[in-house]
Amino acid sequence: MSSTASKLDPDRQLPSSGQRSSCYHKGLNYLTNSPKKADRCSSRTKNGKFPDTTNTPLRNLALCRKPPGSVSPAKRQINEVKETKTTVNCVTFPLPGEGPEQQLLKPNEWSYCDYFWADKKDPQGTTHVTGFEVLLQKQLKGKQLQKEMAEFIHERIKIEEEYAKNLSKLSLSPLAAQEEGTLGEAWTQLKKSLHDEAEVHLKFSNKLHTEVEKPLLTFRCDNFKKDLKKYDHHIADLRKQLASRFAGVEKARKALADRQKDLEVKTQQLEIKLSNKTEEDIKKARRKSTQAGDDLMRSLDLYNQTQSKWFEEMVTTSMELEKLEVERVEWIQQHLRQYTTLRHETDMFNQSTVEPVDQLLQNVDPAKDRELWVKENKTGEVRPVDLDI
Amino acid sequence: MSSTASKLDPDRQLPSSGQRSSCYHKGLNYLTNSPKKADRCSSRTKNGKFPDTTNTPLRNLALCRKPPGSVSPAKRQINEVKETKTTVNCVTFPLPGEGPEQQLLKPNEWSYCDYFWADKKDPQGTTHVTGFEVLLQKQLKGKQLQKEMAEFIHERIKIEEEYAKNLSKLSLSPLAAQEEGTLGEAWTQLKKSLHDEAEVHLKFSNKLHTEVEKPLLTFRCDNFKKDLKKYDHHIADLRKQLASRFAGVEKARKALADRQKDLEVKTQQLEIKLSNKTEEDIKKARRKSTQAGDDLMRSLDLYNQTQSKWFEEMVTTSMELEKLEVERVEWIQQHLRQYTTLRHETDMFNQSTVEPVDQLLQNVDPAKDRELWVKENKTGEVRPVDLDI
C-alpha cells in the first residue's frame, strides 16, 4: 500500500517541512485569531468528535482584561497577518486561493483518491459522514446490487423450469395419437418437438444457474465485508488519533498564550519601574514562554505526522476500493454477457427442434395415406354382378 | 354424382342385359341347387336381414318324395350345370374365376370405390359391417383426430400465456434497480428484454389461436356429420330395398318350382295313361308354369335394377368421401405448417429482444461509471496541509 502512496509527489500532497513556521513569537497572532478559530471549533463540536478546547472562559477573560485604548505592538502586527488555513473536524485544509496550487493526484481519472477528502453532513444533518465512509457505502451497495441480480436470474431460472415442465408434459399427451400414415408421422414429430423444446429450456436454466447465478452470488462472498471493516477501522482509528493530537495542539497553544501574557505584564511593570527585582522575573518568564513554544512545536509535529499518515492511508485505500469497483463492474458485465449468449443459444436450439417437423410435413401425402389405410381396411374388391336364374 | 358414375364402363361394372338367361326351363337346375343356396341363405339369416324363404319343409318334402332310383332328364342336366355366382347379404358377386375379368375402376389409385364392396364381420363377429360403414368410420375418426389436434394446440397456447405472464411480471421486479451508470443502463435493458420476450410469446399464443387452433376446430364443424348421416341413410335404404327385392326373387323361384313339379307329375300320369282327361290338365299346368317363370324374371329385373342403383351410389359416394379425406389431410398439413412457421418467427423475434441488451453491455465502462458516480458523490477535492502556528 505505502508503495502506491510513495508514487505520489509528497510536496504536492503535503507541505514540505520547509513551509512549517517555527517562529513561535508569531504566537501572539494566535491569541487574537483564536475567536475566529473558536467559531470553527464550536461548529466543529456539533459532530461531537472531541471537546472544543479553544473557547474557554479563561481565553475570553484574557481578551476583555485589556485596558481600553491601549494599542500594543502585537495588536499592530495582527492587521498585517492573514488566515491561510482552516481546520474542519481536525483535518487542516488550505483556505481557497491560499497556499501552493494543488494538482489532482490522478488527473482525468476521476479517481476516488482525489475527491473524498472532506467530511459531509449526512442526510439528517445531525452527524458527519467522512468521505471514506461514502466510498465504503458505495462498495456495500454494489455488493447488494450484485446479490439482487443473482436473485433476478434465479427467478428467471424458475420460470424456465416451469415452462420446460409444462412443455414436456404436453408432449406426452395422447391427443390425436391415432392419426395414421404420413400425417400421423408429422403429428407425432410435432408432439415430440415439444419435448425437445423443453430440453432446450431446461439446459438454458441449468446453464443460467452454473454460469450466471452462481458466479454473481459467490463473487467476493465472505471476506469482502470483513476486508471493508478492516479498512474502515484502520482509517477511523487514524481520525481518532488525529483528533486527540489536535486537542494536544490546542492545549499547547493555550499554555503558550498564558506564558506570553505573563511575560507581557512583567515587561510593562519594568517600563514603569514598579520594582527592582523585575529583571529576574522577566528572564524567568521568557524562559517559561520559550518552553511553552517548544511544547507547541512538538504537538504540531505529532499532529502533522498523524495527518500525513491518515492521508497516505486514504490515498492507498481509496485506490484499492476503486480497483474493487472496477472488478465488480467488469465481473457483472462478463456474466450478463454470458446470459445473453445463453439466450441466443436457446433460440438457435429451439429453431432446430422444429426442423424435423417441417421435414415430415413436407412428406405428408394424402394419396399415400389412403393407400396405407385401404390396404389395411379394405373389405373386398370384387364388384357385384346381376343375379340370374 | 351420377356423372362420375356414367364415366365408368357399365359392361365392366354390371353384366349387360344380354348376359341375362331368359330361359326359365333351366329353372329345373334351381331345384337341385337349392340346398346349396339354402346353406348360403341359412348363413345369411344370421344377420337377420330377411327370413330364409328357400329352406322350407315343403321344399325338403318335394326332394324326399322322389322315388329312389328314378333318374329324370332334368337330373341329367344338373351335372352339366356349374354355379358361377354367390349372393352374400343379398349382394350378388361372381365366384372366383367366373364371369368376365374385372379391372379396377381406378387402377393404381387405391380409390375407396374399388375396395369396399363386401361386408365384413365386426370385431365381435356377431353382426356384419358394410364396406360403406368402414368408410364412414374413417371419416368420423378423422374428424375426431382433427378436434384433438386443436385441443393440443389449445394446451400449448395456455403454456405460452403462462410463460409470458411470468416473464413480464419478473421484468417489472425492482431487483437491482439502483444500479447506476452504463452498467445500470445495461441491467435495465436486460430486465426490459424479459417484457419484450413476453410480448413475443403472447403474440405467438394469439396467432396459434387464430391461425391454427380455430381453423382446426371449425373445419367442417356442423354440417359434416349431417352430410355423413345423409350418405349413410341413403346407402342403407338401398341395401334394405335390395334385401326385399331378393326376398321377392326367392319367393318367385319357389312358386316356379312348385308349378314345375305339378307339371312333371301330370306328365308322368299321361305316360301311364291313368286318366283320359289329363291332356287338358297338362296344358293348364304348363300355362301356370310359364306364368310363374315370367314372375321370376320380373322380380329378377327389379332386384338387379336396385343392385345397380346401389352400386352407382356406392361408387359416387365413396369417391366423395375419398375427396373429403384428401381435403382433411391437406387442411391439417397446411395448418401444422402454420404452426412451425409461427414457432420459427417466435425464435427470430426472441433473438431481437436480446440485441439491445448486447449493445448496452458493449458500452459498459467502469471508468465512465466512476466519473458519473464521483461527480455526484464527491465530498471535496482540496487535500489537507500541515497545520502550523
Automatic annotation (TrEMBL), chains A, B:
GO biological process: chordate embryonic development; clathrin coat assembly; clathrin-dependent endocytosis; neuron projection morphogenesis
GO cellular component: clathrin-coated pit; clathrin-coated vesicle; plasma membrane
Matches recorded under Gene3D superfamilies: Arfaptin homology (AH) domain/BAR domain
Domain of life assignment: Eukaryota
Alphabetized InterPro entries for the sequence: AH/BAR_dom_sf (IPR027267), F_BAR_dom (IPR031160), FCH_dom (IPR001060), GAS7_F-BAR (IPR037957)
CDD domains on file: F-BAR_GAS7
Region (Disordered): 1-57
Residue ranges the record marks as coiled coil: 221-280
Domain F-BAR intervals: 108-369
Keywords from the UniProt entry: Coiled coil
Record's keyword annotation contains Hydrolase: no
Name listed for the protein in its UniProt record: Growth arrest-specific 7a
